[in-house]
Amino acid sequence: LLLGALLWAPWRALHGAPLAELSGDQDFQLFLHKNLEFTRKIKGDVAALQRVVCDTFQLCKEEELLLVRQDLGIAQVPLEQCHSRTFQAEACFSQIRAGLRAYHGSLAAVLELLPGHAGLVETLQLDAANLSSNIQQQVEDLGLATVTYPTEGRGPLPAFSSRFHHQVGGFFILANFQRFLETAYRALRHLARL
């Protein structure tokens, strides 16, 4: 319950977000609704892979793995522009695109970990690339200024020192991606309600 309250709190600040110039655009609304569904589909695929990691490696609870996480250096991709008090669609979209690119690359570690589920991982990578492309196209169509966020700290994946670290790394990549998608979904839903 506390976690739910903490995750919801930043969204309360968005209700006064100045986006009136976008809210009446029917093409923009269509884009939002299509990509809300697309994001929901991607979240479902990530959840399916999380179940595979849980069933295959018995890695199911994040709180049991926090000490190992610190050693791995796998950080959550930031999306603060999508829930700040000064919310701007173009800054949020830019951060979502940057995050999707980062997770697209990170999923390579999951692919190595779960070769028997290569089809699902590759579909997830393709979907992440397609969602990023959809957002880029919409930003260009709306004539919004694009913002490029630095990618420091999100370069190549860490070299896992053991099979167990690789498994835990895969677990956290998926857990972080799921949280990222939740925030992106909320941002798109917020824009659709304006």
Walk me through this protein's architecture.
This protein has 194 residues and is mainly alpha-helical. The protein has helices at residues 2-12, 20-23, 26-57, 66-72, 89-113, 118-142, 163-193. It is elongated, with a radius of gyration of 17 Å. Mean pLDDT is 82; it is low at 1-20.
Question: Top keywords for this entry?
Answer:
single chain; 194 residues; mainly alpha; Growth Hormone, Chain: A; 7 helices; elongated
- Main beta sheet strand tally, sense and closure: none
Please give the CATH class: Mainly Alpha
Report the span from N to C terminus: 27 Å
| Shape, per Cα inertia axes | elongated
How much of the sequence lies in strands comes to under 5%
Classification by helices and strands: mainly alpha
Order of helices and strands: HHHHHHH
Radius of gyration: 17 Å
Helix content range: 55-70%
Q: Examine the secondary-structure arrangement and name the CATH architecture.
A: Up-down Bundle
Tell me briefly what this model is.
With 194 residues, the protein is mainly alpha-helical.
Task: Give the SSE map.
Blueprint: H1 2-12, H2 20-23, H3 26-57, H4 66-72, H5 89-113, H6 118-142, H7 163-193
Helix pairs in contact: 3-6, 3-7, 5-6, 5-7
